[in-house]
Amino acid sequence: MAPNDRSNRPLRQPPEPGKWKAFGLAVLMHLLLAAALIFSLNWNRRAPGPVQAELWTALPSPNQPEPPAPTPEPEPQPATPPPPPPAPEPKLTQEKPDIAIEQEKKRREERERREAEEAERKREQQLQEKKLAEKRAQEKKEAEQREAEKKKAEQLAAQKAADEKKAAAEKAAAEKKAAAEKKAQAERDRKLREAFRNDTARAAGLEGGREGGTANRNQAGGGGGDPGYADLVRACIKPGVIYSASGSSADGNPTAVFRVQLLPTGEQAGGPRLVRSSGVAAFDRAVENGIRRCDPFPRPSSGRYESNIEVQYRMFD
Question: What is the CATH number of domain 192-314?
Answer without folding.
Answer: 3.30.1150.10
